[in-house]
Amino acid sequence: xxxxxxxxxxxxxxxxxxxxxxxxxxxxxxxxxxxxxxxxxxxxxxxxxxxxxxxxxxxxxxxxxxxxxxxxxxxxxxxxxxxxxxxxxxxxxxxxxxxxxxxxxxxxxxxxxxxxxxxxxxxxxxxxxxxxxxxxxxxxxxxxxxxxxxxxxxxxxxxxxxxxxxxxxxxxxxxxxxxxxxxxxxxxxxxxxxxxxxxxxxxxxxxxxxxxxxxxxxxxxxxxxxxxxxxxxxxxxxxxxxxxxxxxxxxxxxxxxxxxxxxxxxxxxxxxxxxxxxxxxxxxxxxxxxxxxxxxxxxxxxxxxxxxxxxxxxxxxxxxxxxxxxxxxxxxxxxxxxxxxxxxxxxxxxxxxxxxxxxxxxxxxxxxxxxxxxxxxxxxxxxxxxxxxxxxxxxxxxxxxxxxxxxxxxxxxxxxxxxxxxxxxxxxxxxxxxxxxxxxxxxxxxxxxxxxxxxxxxxxxxxxxxxxx
Length: 469
Description:
Layout lengths: L12 H12 L7 E7 L3 H15 L2 E7 L3 H9 L4 E2 L4 H9 L9 E13 L19 E4 L3 H7 L16 E3 L2 H9 L5 E5 L10 E5 L2 H4 L4 E8 L6 H13 L1 H9 L9 H7 L1 H4 L1 H15 L5 E5 L5 H9 L3 E6 L2 H13 L6 E5 L12 E7 L8 H11 E11 L7 H7 L30 H8 L4 E4 L4 E6 L1
Parallel strand pairs: 1-2, 1-3, 5-6, 5-7, 10-11, 10-13, 11-12, 13-14
Antiparallel strand pairs: 3-9, 4-7, 4-8, 4-9, 14-16, 15-16
Helix pairs in contact: 1-2, 2-9, 8-9, 12-13, 15-17
């Protein structure tokens, strides 16, 4: 039986066992692949590798190494069938040195450069320039230093023992997050995935390309190596990691992105404009049902901002759109300025799992279509309830609203999605036919888990839940 070699601690024993057992059951003629990857991807890749073994019967030996020296060593040795470089620069180096076959490379997931903050963000940090405040104690991953020196040189000062100024660099993301959790620093510049294992204690603010440049997104690639004597099977594994829905679901679960963030512009150009009538109808429904036309409204998962802007036009509300994708927020703020509404409608990039607002803040909260894209829906709903004012209303869910004519609604729903399956997968519906990575099941179950009792489930014009406080 082949041994799964893990050159790092911390891998989930159950996942490792799954790879071993699946390999043991494989036919004797099955190929055995050696795969080299950074240790920071161990949990997700082990789970994806186990699925590949179960599906194909091929055997895999996983070699996880410390980066950066371990990654370069394992590449130089040339004994792997598949290599997964840890970042943009190493990918380029691997290709230039011909340690991999560039033509075989495929992106398997992405990470984004982000500001990591403690829960509730006590310093009120909203963008990179806020870290320039000399009272803010910040740290950064060493791998990001070159870019930070370029975009924010004031952050890169000489070391200072008291951590009163930016001076602390770390190779180990776990060390950085421990410092943040212990409140020894106020902010950390790191990859967005470092907070995934503990979303209740950290806020994620992804940095836009306009600030972070090429480092804003780190696409992680998998390659077949020139020395592989099983190139066809190795390519099969690369294709599986890149294209199979099984692997994509695993990577999403572990907090990795499947795109580089450029979808916001495409959505704004096409889908968002196509749904403008829907936004009008939902906002009119909100005004008619709740009569909340003054105060503060939040749009959670606002995208390029069409619905938030529509709500601002219809009311005297101060409307704040929230989205974790900075490119979407930049587009939304541009739309607000073009519409002359920037004094009452603004957009912030923030994490729905830890909203940057105080308790009892908003009179009205709306979220259309965001819940199935959140890894921890219970935590997100609790955050909505926390920032909702007593007497306020939150309207969460998905659909076209009851004012949208049925014929138009059916035309706009994606294939396989209908009003009664909005936010979920229909009976017998496969992952291939669904657009939702984390479908929402029963609202009653979700509200019970969140500890919310004052709610009403609405199955008209989609699937919604109305929450009152």
